[in-house]
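In the current project phase, the collection of sequences with tokenised folds has grown. A sample record is quoted in full directly below:
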Amino acid sequence: MIERDTAPRLAGRGRGYLNSRSAQSVAPRTVRAACPRCDRGPRDTAMAITTDERGTISFCHRCHYWRSEWRAACRKCGTLFELVSDPDGTIGTCPHCGDTSARTERLHIEPTRVTRAEPLDWSPRAEAIWRRTRPLAGSLGEVYLRHRGCRLPPADGDLRYLPPTGSHPPTLCARVTDAVTARPLSLHFTRLAPDGRSKAGTGRDKLLLAGHRKRGGVIRLWPDEAVTYGLGIAEGIETALAAARLYTPVWACIDAGNLAALPVLPGIECLAIYADHDDAGTRAAQECARRRKAADREVVIYRPRMRGEDIADLAQRRVA
């Protein structure tokens, strides 16, 4: 027997069913609710419940469970009655004559499995934004980096300044490229305050260009031509550029996941990892170092003594 649980009831509150013998027009509407199969608590909204004139269809974007509710005419007496389908089957009995044959004449469209589109590797939109950027020297981007105690990267690196436009504040704009092939993948943005002395304070000051691939990418703060024997890496841009006061060239890996997965790059004999002192940062640095050691390559990890800090925090205190 098919469960009649939270998601279907939510969908049926005044907007989910055709409750007359003639079809009525119902404006399409989608709400979110917990999935009856993989519910993870009261704040779970993995299931999308869409209602229109055909009935209600529910689809979980996590476990792909689906459920349809609609009304169909009995093949024997013509009475409209409600049917319910999910991966286990279809149920529904005509209340007038008891026939169940209408289930073979489905008037709904069964959902197909929804998958996210593959992320882009660069795009005309990314190229257009990158063309609008300017060198860091003399910009609010330089003000921000110097206020954070960072070293300015060379002009031919992949960090530039994006001037404000409309509702968009001044921004550091970094090009994300594939760690191995150097192929452009995406853009990384750091929104700045109007005076450039801090981040903008929007709650989302750091973000990536939507719909583009980040996995396997790095920000080449120094170009490949500057990388000869060794390389320094860190998660964030500020951490990498603070470390650049001690060692160059440096790249930023964007986050702990990318740093942990950084492959052993050809031609780099020594890798210096400037790790964030938190659980994720420590694990990422250790995973990257294990891969290097397994390939018989030199690697060293630098980490602040105080938990919760990174190299950029130390550098900013020195300039405060």
Summary: The chain has two domains: 6-104, 124-319.
